[in-house]
Write a structure and sequence with these properties.
Blueprint lengths: L7 H15 L3 E12 L5 E6 L4 E6 L1 H4 L11 E11 L4 E11 L2 H17 L18 E5 L4 H13 L5 E5 L7 H15 L4 E6 L13 H9 L4 E5 L7 H5 L2 E3 L2 H8 L1 H38 L3 H44 L4 H39 L1 H6 L4 E3 L17 E5 L4 E5 L7
Length: 440
Amino acid sequence: MPTPILTVSELNRLARTAIEQRLPLLWVSGEISNLTRAPSGHVYFSLKDSAAQVRCVMFRGRAQLLPWRVENGQQVEAQALATLYEPRGDFQLNVESLRRAGRGQLYEAFLQLRDRLAAAGLFDEAAKRPLPRFPRCVGVVTSPKAAALRDILAALARRAPHVPVVIYPTLVQGDGAAAQITAAIDAAAARAECDVLLVARGGGSIEDLWAFNDEAVARAIRACTIPVVTGIGHETDVSIADMAADRRAATPTAAAEFASAGWHAAAEEIAALDAALKSAMRAAIDRRMQAVDLCAHRLVHPAAQLARTRQRLSHLATRLLAAMGRKLHRRQTELATARLRLARLRPTTEPARTRLLRADQGLRQAALALVAARRAHIERLGASLAALSPAATLERGYSIVRDAQDRVVRDSSTLREGEALSLRFAKGRADAVVIAAVPD
């Protein structure tokens, strides 16, 4: 196969990819020279030693995080990514962070202490406490003269001005600073007058921040009964105290923002609710005003309304009279027509009236004869009934005999001696006892 022919751009791209894959993020030490600050904020310089040099660029976002000013002749250690600048084919380092030379020994001590305390469980996330949402008092462990304190107080005054602040003064760098920081944290825990404790200081070199890489400080933070927030240095500065704290903030101002987050969120929520309520009220008022406008357009002066009603009533009266006249005329015409038809169709009633009178008289006479016959029949039936009545029999001297079960006695053989009997006469009754029963 023939060897492919590459363009210069393709060659540089392949070289850049190979360099970045073979050389991961690394640390390089050397002396700064040929320093240039571009208007864009990027910083260009070379790192050199006694035998070689390499071009470097530190982009604005990273350069702004440096707590010190970079100058020619400084001995530094750069954390950088080796790459190739394709448009010019220049080998260069993209610098992520810089530290002054000599930091390496301190950094090794930092790593050893970090690993030892991590193995002891001092940085366990499960042991870290949540921050109170609405702290009633905030404690601050820092130097009274530090700019960090002013930043914290300004942030708290802006976000939660009603929350009191208690300052526990201490050195934050130099000899004895770690012991004072430890004592201040212990004092805050013993006094228990705060709901959250901020441990803070401004930016500086690793030497300036070394007091916060002390084991006693880390153990005091974990032993503190109050949730602790650290705001030490800048975003790139991470100390042992940050790892031991319940919450790490990138800066002192961010630590104050964490401590006041609940109050600030509540204030924003209240403001949002207030704005929503005002908006809803304005919308409701607008709707009511629109309804009022509509009613105003529909509202007519009473005199005009009365005149309009009077006119309408007059018009309706005229229409009613006209309709009634037409209807009356129509009914009169129909009545006259009906009279004419009735006159033509009406029959003569006199013969029928005569026959009706004769039939009425015959009916009356037949009814009277029928009633007399029925009355005579009833009288005969009454006489027969009276002759057959038991009462008539009793009137002739007979009586009715009943036994103890109220049965009529018809045969003396059914009676026993001593049996009680009841006798019924035409008038009254009597009780009797059988002395002897004589059969017929």
